[in-house]
Write a structure and sequence with these properties.
The complex is a heterotrimer. Chain A is an alpha/beta fold. In chain A, the strands form three sheets. Chain A has a seven-stranded mixed β-sheet with strand order 7-6-8-9-10-14-15. Chain A has a five-stranded parallel β-sheet with strand order 2-1-3-4-5, sandwiched between helices. Chain A is globular and about 60 Å long. By secondary structure, chain B is mainly α. In chain B, strands 1-2 form a two-stranded antiparallel ribbon. The longest helix of chain B is centred in the first third of the chain and has 32 residues. The mean pLDDT of chain B is about 85. Chain C is built from 18 helices and four strands. Chain C has a two-stranded antiparallel ribbon with strand order 1-2. A two-stranded antiparallel ribbon of chain C has the order 3-4. In chain C, a hairpin with a 2-residue loop joins strand 3 and strand 4. The two termini of chain C are about 15 Å apart. Classes of the chains: A alpha/beta, B mainly alpha, C mainly alpha. Chains in contact: A-B, A-C, B-C. At the B-C interface, helix 3, helix 4, helix 9, helix 12 and helix 14 of B face helix 6, helix 7, helix 12, helix 14 and helix 17 of C.
């Protein structure tokens, strides 16, 4: 009993002292993403990009609201929705008011729901959710809420752009869909079926497969199945370890068809795919790396690589999110989440790439130009994974053309 | 269709034989010492990581030899100074010890090598398509894996049945006390078998690392599957482990390859189902979906109805 | 508390204070704790502790009291959680009218139902067969949970809203502190019930079967039936813990019933000590503290937990509670004070050695994990540059000197220990 109580008081005192030591003049952004497990590479890369963006784009320029600095506080959620809520509670307890998360829509769905509940129950301690990568369309449609802002284009927007490209390729007759078995993978599959059906009713979908996320150890059976189906194009939303595995297995079977992806670049994926995917793999994304857009961006990219030689700018929207958050604070003259949220609604912004972006007020979905790029080693200025291979933009869809209608009926706090 | 069957068969055999390399060591250890070694798959992971580090300096081929030896030595140390010490606290403590060791090894691996996947690749000399059938390539590295596993199986079989050491091991498996009475150093045999078993797991890791990825979760992914094989194959039966490995390997690849669902089955009996009933998941259940469950289903069924396993003589 | 709650010894006719004292103490502690530790994070930590205490105690009904090593106990915890969260949603959509605090009962019931089903075939034998079946069932249910989306919600799990129930006495569970008192109440009741269970003839027979199943059979008890009943009770309480988890987190996912959670409960029960009734309580408290506090300060906390676990299994199979219990004889003989000085003498160098080792590990980790050019790190408030020699030397010296001094103190410590535990001379008066 004695030892127990000593441990208890000692440890709790230590914990309390740690929490009370919050510096008042920093604005904390809680980064809740996988920093361990099969998706750790994606998460840690995102973390470094956030840290760099905050340092370069805000703190070095004197911070916001007269000198307040941004600080990124990492929380490892192990890609689990439950663990994310645990970390969310911890973050809120430590005085974090801005939550950034992106990897896995399953997590984002849990977080947006939890943050909505939290803000309702604790009106004097609200938090804002900056979603920088989770692209399940539901987040800005059926499940939209006032505290959630999405800086990436959603799965429907991306699929719309992707199918525009496929539409023009008359040699594609059979398409194979493969994805991870969770909300995002299902959303990609549903969007592909829908848009292909509208734009190219003649295309036959020869496979629509979902596999467990992060648990498949060998993708060879799937690759064999794709090969045997006679598909002349593959569409996948896989990311992280699941994309590495799939890319490798497809490469080994010698399958020679275009593969349309959402995330087949960086974090070790480009390096693994290497020459076997040259001119085969295409990616739909925001923020073009090659050819370089503006000098400002080129400097930003080079500085990042100088500091993180092993990492890449895989999620350019992180810079947008950080800059827009700072701009919204300046615009509203306050760092209170509700004021920031109001300032962000409908905000127009010019990115480092010189692109015009709008945070759509009705559903908090960022409307921005979308690019479709090819995996190649020719004319690459900024490669990925230091492999010589990188993404070169082939097609760009203007921001206005990407905007899809939303079913969001948002309730705003008074 | 034939293309799919052919390649599924090949892939299934490759997976099955890889599993056998893990299971062979585990089944010997299990039947001899009665301890299900939870850390066995961790030795597999260590093999891959050691070989990765070695390959950075001297290339793939020396790693193929050195890494398993290192893992084997480590395994022997674990038996000598860990398991044998814990033995005094009884059987449950031994199981829990190996369980804790598996947890610890994973943490140590993350500490030393980090949390991300390591760029451990097959040697350049094996990076080509061995043959192409129906327009689909079969990588040479897979054939290499196949070759090594078959070699190991034959070697093990020869040692166990044709050599003096093998006879002593077999004796120690069935009657450890009697063997000790006859003047054989049974603890040494235990340590040796544990070391060799770990080395085999390490070897499996060395050759599986480039194919299946070298990351801290690789032990967990395979760990419980190997248990399934040992139990299904039967206690102390190398042949049983071999058959069970192949069954599991083929089961997993074919379940993914063949796209049949429960509703297809029902359609044969012309039963229709409603799309929005509470049991909708049951009707749309397809083979690829249930693929991950099948080994465990097999395990539970075997344990209930045939606790000796397919080829075992004793109960687990 | 430990001496009374010890499962090995029991005095039926103990005086009132001795019999009910620990329970009154527990009740008061549960009520007062949140007044002392009132920060959000402290309440959150205590909520987690409460849930894990029930879960770990239910696990110990198998491992400690019944001798059944289970690698799939999270199944009953998780299923209890899922059932409760479904009922939470039924309440929200007014399918059923129920107060929220009743939810864990449904968790308990489904835990019980599944335990009856699984137990009917898995409790035939203890030992490895039982362990393997539990592992298989665990993996089976965890994998199925990703397939049967209607019940398990797939990868995302099922979430609910605990505030949607009928408001009773102004409590709508919007704040964590309200949930704390709910968990505390449930914890008190379940701890009492599980303790009483261990005192019934049935609980005693479970111990007998654990120690020697053949003898238990000879005196006329079916070992299988005894194990089965323990197993069912254990499943029931695990389900209740799951239900509380659902209320606290408002989300239940596949993770709640997978092998990881099963491993965690084994870990904390064992660290706490399986031979004592309060062992799992200590284990759950310590583990939760490690998880929430240690993980704030270091990224490699799981490494420390792993080392601690393996060391516990190897050298202190009685767990933390066992260490405490070792001091009871000396305490009864009023000789505990003789141990204080040797403990301090051996403890200080041990702490030196540990801090040396820990700082070394932390520095290695920092050098590997930090961004390029970031060479400063801080440990317990001290900032230093990991790319210079000095910190490494200091940590090395700490470890070596601390280790040497610890070793040199050991004979004295052992001597003091033996002195304190030596049988009493007839002259000295003994208490109890």
């Amino acid at each position: 009993m004695k030892i127990k109580s000593t441990i208890l008081t000692g440890a709790t005192l230590a914990a309390l002292s740690a929490f009370s030591a919050q510096a008042a003049d920093t604005i904390k952004i809680g980064f809740i993403d996988p920093l361990s497990g099969p998706f750790a590479a994606t998460g840690t890369n995102g973390l470094q990009q956030f840290r760099f963006a905050v340092e370069e784009l805000v703190n070095k320029k004197g911070g916001v609201l007269g000198g307040k600095k941004f600080e990124i506080v990492p929380y490892d959620n192990k890609i689990s929705p439950k663990e994310s809520l645990v970390q969310l509670k911890r973050a809120i307890g430590e005085g974090v008011q801005f939550i950034a998360q992106g990897n896995s829509s399953g997590v984002a769905n849990a977080l947006t729901d939890a943050i909505k509940k939290h803000n309702k129950r604790n009106p004097d301690n609200r938090v804002l959710f900056l979603n920088y990568s989770a692209v399940d369309p539901a987040l800005t449609n059926a499940k939209c809420n006032f505290w959630h802002f999405r800086f990436d284009a959603n799965a429907d927007i991306k699929m719309n752009a992707l199918t525009d490209v496929i539409k023009a390729k008359s040699d594609i007759k059979k398409v194979y869909l493969i994805g991870q078995d969770y909300s995002f993978g299902k959303a990609v599959a549903a969007a592909a079926v829908k848009f292909l059906g509208e734009k190219r009713p003649d295309i036959k979908i020869v496979g629509n497969e979902l596999h467990p996320i992060g648990k498949v150890k060998d993708f060879t059976p799937y690759a064999t199945k794709i090969r045997a189906s006679g598909a002349d194009a593959v569409i996948t939303g896989n990311w992280g370890a699941d994309m590495i595995g799939l890319g490798k297995a497809i490469g080994e079977t010698g399958l020679d068809v275009p593969i349309y992806t959402y995330y087949a670049a960086n974090d070790g994926i480009t390096k693994t795919i290497g020459a076997s995917g040259k001119n085969k793999i295409r990616l739909v994304h925001e923020g073009p790396a090659n050819p370089p857009s503006t000098d400002t961006y080129a400097t930003y990219h080079k500085d990042f690589k100088k500091k993180n030689p092993e990492k890449d700018i895989s999620q350019f929207r992180i810079a947008n999110a950080v800059q827009m958050l700072a701009a919204a604070m300046e615009k509203g003259g306050s760092a209170k989440p509700i004021d920031v949220a109001r300032a962000l609604e409908g905000m127009e912004f010019t990115s480092l790439h010189g692109e015009k972006l709008t945070m759509r007020a009705e559903d908090h979905q960022m409307i921005q130009p979308i690019h479709i790029s090819v995996h190649t080693d020719e004319n690459i200025t900024f490669d990925s994974d230091n492999s010589g291979f990188g993404l070169r933009t082939e097609t760009t869809v203007a921001a206005a053309d990407t905007a899809l209608p939303s079913t969001c009926k948002m309730r705003r706090p008074k | 269709m034939f293309e799919l069957l052919f390649f599924s068969l090949l892939n299934g055999i490759v997976t099955g034989l890889l599993l056998f390399m893990l299971a062979s060591g585990l089944t010997l250890i299990f039947s001899m010492m009665g301890v299900l070694n939870f850390a066995h798959a961790s030795f597999y992971m260590l093999g891959a990581y050691f070989a990765y580090t070695i390959s950075l300096y001297v290339g793939f081929w020396p790693g193929l030899i050195i890494a398993p030896i290192l893992v084997g030595l480590f395994g022997a140390l674990v038996e000598r100074y860990g398991l044998r010490y814990v033995h005094r606290w009884g059987h449950v403590a031994e199981l829990i010890f190996t369980f804790g060791l598996a947890f610890l090894i994973e943490e140590v691996v993350q500490f030393i090598w980090g949390k991300d996947t390591k760029a451990y690749h097959e040697p350049e000399i094996l990076q080509f398509a061995l043959f192409t059938v129906f327009g689909q390539d079969f990588p040479a590295y897979k054939a290499f894996m196949l070759l090594i596993s078959i070699g190991i199986f034959i070697m093990l079989l020869m040692i166990l049945t044709r050599s003096r050491v093998g006879l002593i091991i077999q004796a120690a498996i069935t009657k450890p006390n009697m063997t000790a009475m006859l003047g054989h150093n049974v603890p040494l045999v235990f340590m040796g078998v544990f070391g060799v078993g770990s080395a085999l797991a390490g070897l499996a890791g060395v050759i599986a690392g480039p194919a299946l990825g070298t990351f801290p979760g690789m032990a967990v992914v395979l760990g419980s599957i190997v248990f399934v094989i040992v139990v299904v194959g039967g206690l102390g039966s190398l042949g049983g482990a071999f058959v069970a490995s192949l069954i599991i390997g083929l089961l997993q690849t074919f379940a993914i390859a063949l796209d049949y669902s429960v509703s297809d089955l029902l359609a044969v009996f012309s039963i229709t189902t409603e799309a929005d009933s509470a049991l909708r998941d049951l009707w749309t259940l397809s083979l690829p979906q249930v693929a991950p469950i099948l080994p465990y289903l097999l395990l539970v069924l075997i344990l209930i109805f045939r606790p000796t396993g397919l080829f075992g003589k004793r109960e687990t | 508390m430990s001496e009374i709650a010890n499962t090995q010894t029991g005095e039926i006719s103990a005086p009132f204070a001795k019999r009910f004292g620990p329970w009154i103490f527990l009740a008061v502690a549960l009520i007062v704790l949140p007044l002392i530790f009132s920060s959000n994070i402290a309440v959150y930590t205590m909520n987690l502790m409460g849930i894990f205490i029930i879960f770990a105690l239910s696990y110990n009904m198998l491992l400690g009291q019944g001798g059944m090593l289970s690698f799939g106990h999270a199944v009953y915890f998780g299923l209890g959680g899922f059932m409760s969260v479904h009922f939470m949603n039924y309440i929200e959509y007014e399918v059923v009218v129920l107060p929220m605090f009743m939810l864990p009962i449904f968790g308990g019931i489904i835990g019980l139902v599944f335990a009856i089903i699984v137990g009917s075939f898995s409790t035939r034998r203890a030992g490895t067969v039982f362990a393997m079946i539990s592992l298989g069932i665990g993996e089976l249910i965890a994998a199925s949970s990703l397939i049967f989306v209607a019940f398990f919600g797939g990868e995302e799990g099922v979430s609910g809203d605990r505030t949607m129930g009928p408001v009773i006495m102004d409590v709508d569970f919007a704040q964590d502190i309200e949930v704390y008192y709910l968990i505390a109440a449930w914890a008190f009741v379940t701890i009492a019930l599980m303790y009483l269970f261990s005192r019934t003839p049935m609980g005693r027979m479970a111990n007998a079967v654990r120690d020697n199943d053949e003898r238990a059979e000879f005196i006329g008890y079916s070992q299988r039936k005894v194990r089965f009943i323990s197993f069912c009770a254990s499943g029931f309480f695990a389900g209740i813990a799951g239900g509380l988890f659902a209320i606290n987190f408002e989300i239940v996912t596949e993770e709640n019933l997978n092998a990881l959670t099963s491993g965690v409960v084994l870990l904390m029960t064992y660290i706490g000590g399986v031979g004592f009734f309060i062992g799992p309580i200590v284990g759950a408290v310590v583990f939760t503290l490690l998880q929430t506090v240690l993980s704030n300060h270091t990224e490699i906390w799981q490494l420390y937990v792993g080392v601690m676990f393996v060391l516990t299994v190897m050298y202190v199979p009685q767990g933390l509670t066992g260490i405490m219990a070792m001091h009871i004889p000396a305490y009864r003989m009023k000789r505990l004070s003789g141990l204080v000085v040797p403990y301090i003498k051996a403890g200080i160098p041990t702490i030196l050695m540990l801090s040396g080792i820990v700082s070394f590990l932390e520095m290695v980790h920092h050098v590997r994990a930090a961004a390029l050019g970031e060479t400063m790190m801080s440990l317990i408030g001290i900032e230093f540059d990991t790319h210079t020699v000095m910190p490494w030397v200091i940590s090395g010296v700490l470890a070596v000197v601390g280790g040497y001094l610890t070793k040199s103190q050991m004979p004295q410590l052992r001597e003091a220990w033996e002195q304190a535990n030596a049988p009493l001379d007839s002259g000295e008066g003994a208490s109890s």
